[in-house]
Amino acid sequence: MNMEIFVLGTGGMMPLPSRSLTSVLLRREGELFLFDCGEGTQVSLRRLALRWKKISVIFVSHTHADHVTGLPGILMLSSQVERNEPLYIIGPPRIREYVEASRRILDMYINYEIVVKEVSGQETVFEAEGYKVRSYPLNHTKPCLAYCLEEELRPGVFDPEAAVALGVPRGPMWSTLQSGTAVRLDSGTEVQPRQVMGPQRPGRKFSFVTDTTWVAGLPAFVSRSDLLICEGMFGEELAEDAADKKHLTAVQAAEIARQAEVGRLGLIHYSPRYTDRELKRLLHQARSIFPATFLSRELQIIDLQYPE
């Protein structure tokens, strides 16, 4: 089952000619989840030839303009095609007000159901077969949320030698056991899946964090993410500015990743004061704490493999 991450925008505060505002898309077996929707999100979706009409849920971190200004366009764009499924929008308090005001003032034609859910704390905000998405409150200048999408545990590896030793004939019974159902042999003996299956294996975990100061419980929330996309808005030389504006430095993002024992850290939401070349300084600072750090780049595609 494929899981891919598409970086649609990496900038904070204002878009630049080479840097759209923050937005990340996750595709899991054809289902699309959008995390934040900054200005220019539509353009990036088009450039990556993504099937935007399949977006199931939009997760909004907070209602500052650089994270939601692309939302009205996405809502109107989705009305240009046939859509039978509802679009879920999940975010902090006032996201419903923003959506409803945009629809009213812009006189939007919407031909599908929009379901808005407001969240204020740590909870499961969306779930379906095989995965769930949880939220976590951050510390910014207005209510803000981190999100993680985590898959359920996968079955263990089937042991054919154990099956043969127990007298289970090769064929349909093997598949039945692998699906988690016991089988009964001609002798009357019942064989349980646990007798021929190894221990359960973890699924994949993706976490998205932006616009916050240090929060004590955050490393635990993103713990063991295969990929953590986290803001590193400022270099360490501007740590005081970051604290005043309630943002993270690249070093703080790396420290979260180190404590959380994540697989990889992708920095995002860069201050417009940094040119693309100057971002290497943020990368160098973060890698001194957490070597498996990279700079998220516009239109980057990341394939998220199952953990070993």
Can you give a write-up of this model?
By secondary structure, this protein is an alpha/beta fold. The strands form 3 sheets. A 7-stranded mixed sheet has the order 6-5-4-3-2-1-16. A 7-stranded mixed sheet has the order 7-8-9-12-13-14-15, with helices on one face. The protein has helices at 41-47, 65-68, 71-77, 95-105, 160-165, 172-178, 218-221, 239-245, 250-260, 279-287, and strands at 3-9, 23-28, 31-35, 55-59, 87-91, 114-118, 123-128, 131-137, 145-151, 183-184, 190-191, 205-209, 227-231, 264-268, 293-295, 301-303. The two termini are 15 Å apart. The chain folds into 2 domains: 3-154 and 201-303, Ribonuclease Z/Hydroxyacylglutathione hydrolase-like (Metallo-beta-lactamase, Chain A), CATH 3.60.15.10; 160-195, no CATH class. A hairpin with a 5-residue loop joins strand 10 (183-184) and strand 11. It contains 10 helices and 16 strands.
Key features of this structure:
single chain, alpha/beta, 2 domains, seven-stranded mixed beta sheet, 10 helices
Give the secondary structure arrangement, pairings included:
Layout: E1 3-9, E2 23-28, E3 31-35, H1 41-47, E4 55-59, H2 65-68, H3 71-77, E5 87-91, H4 95-105, E6 114-118, E7 123-128, E8 131-137, E9 145-151, H5 160-165, H6 172-178, E10 183-184, E11 190-191, E12 205-209, H7 218-221, E13 227-231, H8 239-245, H9 250-260, E14 264-268, H10 279-287, E15 293-295, E16 301-303
Parallel strand pairs: 3-4, 4-5, 5-6, 12-13, 13-14, 14-15
Antiparallel strand pairs: 1-2, 1-16, 2-3, 7-8, 8-9, 9-12, 10-11
Helix pairs in contact: 9-10
